[in-house]
Write a structure and sequence with these properties.
- By secondary structure, this protein is an all-alpha fold.
- It has two domains: 46 residues, Homeodomain-like (Arc Repressor Mutant, subunit A, Orthogonal Bundle), CATH 1.10.10.60; 137 residues, Tetracycline Repressor, domain 2 (Orthogonal Bundle).
- It has eleven helices and no strands.
- Helix 2 packs across helix 3 and helix 2 packs across helix 8.
- The protein starts with a helix and ends in a 6-residue tail after the last helix.
- The relative contact order is 0.10.
Amino acid sequence: MNRTEVAADSASPVARPSSAANETRLAIIKAAYHAIARSGAQRVSMQEIADDAGVSKGLIHYHFDHKGALVSEALLWALRATEERVTERLAQGVFSEDPIAGIVSALFVGPDQNRDFYLTYLDVIDQVARFPELESFGEMVHDLFEKRFVTILRRAHASGFIGRDDFENAATDVRLILDGLFIQWLLTPDWRSQHTCFALRCERLLRTVLQDQARA
């Protein structure tokens, strides 16, 4: 390819989305996330999301081929935000002081935020379980969470905070405890006032499971 062709390619309007287009796409994703938490993935309409985002429904279809793609992207946005929060706390050394308390504080961020996340998460998991073509999404969730937990647990073991040294299995146990407790919390009528209680229960369970010696 000669320089003229390179210049022509770089000048092409489809070469790279503008910052304004990226901002619009992000606004749509955020609006979809909150609309799904409010109405459910099955019942929410593209028009409802468009109204929340302050854009036309046609503009949503310009950015996303179908509702399923937008729903998946909305949950990924929330997952990445959680992963970034955990990564930031890792860099700050929060998990060095008390890794178990650090995990709980990084994930129990507030009743409304956690409720929105898990309602959306469960909606998307329902789709992943029903449609094999979405299997890669489940693998992405695994990478975002369990691999990060493995890093935290390795450091915690090296510092003498936990006895478990089967880090992959221990990370899975962390996910099981978190998901189970959050689902039970969602079913609690006074979920908002019980948020702190469930966070403390989570911390106690994690300490019991992670401070045991490695299991066969």
